[in-house]
Amino acid sequence: MVNNLSTRDGFEQCLRTDENGELIALFNDLVLRSVYQPIFRADTSVLGFEALIRAKTLTDEPVCPAHLFRHIEQGHPEFYHQISTDRLARVIHLRNFSRYAGQHAIFLNMLPSSAVSAISKFSNQNLMVKRLSELGIPRHHVVLEVVEHLHDDMNALSAATTQSTNNGFGIAIDDYGVKGSKEERVRLLCPNILKIDRSLLQDYMQGNIEPMIRAIALAKEVNAEVLVEGIENEGEYGAMQALDVDYFQGFYLGMPQRLSEFFEANPLELAPIIQVNHHAASPTR
Questions:
Q1: pLDDT per residue rounded down to tens, the chain (285 residues)
Q2: Cα-based torsion angle of the residue sequence 154, 155, 157, 158 in order, rounded to the nearest 10 degrees
Q3: What InterPro entries has UniProt attached to this entry (predicted)?
Q4: How far from 82 is each of 30, 65, 179, 248, CA to CA, in Å?
Q5: Whole-model pTM?
Q6: Which of 16, 65, 147, 247 is a Cys-bridge partner for 227, taking CB atoms 3.0 to 4.6 Å apart?
């Protein structure tokens, strides 16, 4: 088993082109593919896409992404293997995205451990900056999503996200309301976007409105925009439209798919105007 990809040659050796002309990756007996879920503004135009991984074994058995990117402690034998998979996923996401990017944003999931590791070895993020330039993707179109995993060293995570902001990336906190995505993390990291987990949406629809209202208030307090994810029906969409929400995401609005499929169905979305709140880093970060 290969544990750690750290050089361009190492990443390149994992890459292949599939039957659709899209980039895939082969790594440790897994086949990794990119799909993208659209994120909509309140006016229904497309802000951008969250890049998601789809994984299968070499015998074509699906592998659950939640298992692939489950929380693993640093001492675990698969820790660096997981970080390499996380980085490799971003490689194929960005290259596939570059063919259609236009003025859209791309939201990239990042494990907290991967973010901290990349900054502790600063050349890793320099590598990403260089690749973005080669691909013609402006850094301010890239939003790094810190996923909900707990992390022991919050100061290191804060330093990592601050460096990412200084490098021109946006920061989103994913799945707010579950696991490690709590108020403390929001106040420490001061994200550009707070992604509110579907569980808070479900609570809201069942009459427990306070968690959603508090989450939106917290976002506004730290000057973050609000994205509600997991919208699965018309009623949920209408309820969220009535609140102070900036962006919307969910199966009701758009399923994860290849970008070529999305743009074939929506040709007018090839060049919208992007507007992401990239506020200046707070002195407390």
A1: 566 777 788 889 999 999 999 999 999 999 999 999 999 999 999 999 999 999 999 999 999 998 888 878 878 888 888 888 988 999 999 999 998 877 899 999 987 676 666 555 544 567 788 889 999 999 999 999 887 555 556 787 888 888 888 889 999 999 998 865 678 889 988 999 999 999 999 999 999 999 999 999 999 999 999 999 999 999 999 999 999 999 999 999 999 999 999 998 988 776 544 455 555 433 333
A2: 120
A3: Cyclic-di-GMP_PDE-like (IPR050706), EAL_dom (IPR001633), EAL_sf (IPR035919)
A4: 12, 11, 19, 29
A5: 0.88
A6: 247
Q: How many residues are recorded in the chain?
A: 285
Please name each of the domains of the chain with its CATH number. Answer: 19-264 (3.20.20.450)
Q: Output the six-digit token pair for 11.
A: 């990443």
